[in-house]
Amino acid sequence: MDWLAPVNTLIGAVIGVGSTLLADRFRWRRERQAQDRDSRRQAYAAFMGALSDVYSRLHETARATRPPEETSTAAHEIFTAAQLYPLRYELALIAPWDVMDPTNEAFWRARDLRDTVASGAGPDTPEFRTHVGAYLRATEKAQTAMRRDLGTPWPERDGG
């Protein structure tokens, strides 16, 4: 009995099915990674957008002439309305730690700026300028970490 032909057919079928399953697995993994990256990109953009909004509104509040209690209330309301806490918690669930560390730092610097504005410090005060500088440095580090995670690093700066 000639059994070599059916065995070769069976081996060919196993190889064909196996390679198809393997290719499907690789495609699924690639699509899943793309979806995960897109989710992180959206969460990063939402957080950085809210952080930027908080900064702009705090700066406006610091420039406004209001009674101290109104300034304090406004600064805290700005921070709460921006939903930074929930956005930060979302990032904590999906972002790697090398992104969360600078992201937390940026969040804390924004909170420090909020407290500075709430205390009545205006944009001309050294305390305000110090906190703005710390905030800007922290947000740049967070953006750099996010871009690195997404595979879109900043272009190299030449000399300055």
Explain what the structure shows.
There is one protein chain. The chain is mainly α and 160 residues long. It has five helices and no strands. The chain is rod-shaped.
Chart the SSEs and their pairings.
Elements: H1 4-63, H2 68-81, H3 84-94, H4 97-118, H5 126-150
Helix pairs in contact: 1-2, 1-3, 1-4, 1-5, 2-4, 3-4, 4-5
Mean pLDDT: 87
- Assess the beta-strand content as a share of residues: under 5%
- N-to-C SSE string, H for helix and E for strand: HHHHH
Number of helices: 5
Query: Which structural class is indicated by helix and strand composition?
Result: mainly alpha
Outline type: rod-shaped
How helical, in percent, are the residues?
over 70%
Largest sheet: none
N- and C-termini, Cα separation: 81 Å
Oligomer: single chain
- Cα-atom radius of gyration: 26 Å
Unreliable spans: none
- The tally of strands reads 0
Question: What is the gist of this entry?
Answer:
With 160 residues, the chain is an all-alpha fold. It has helices at 4-63, 68-81, 84-94, 97-118, 126-150.
Features:
160 residues; 82% helix
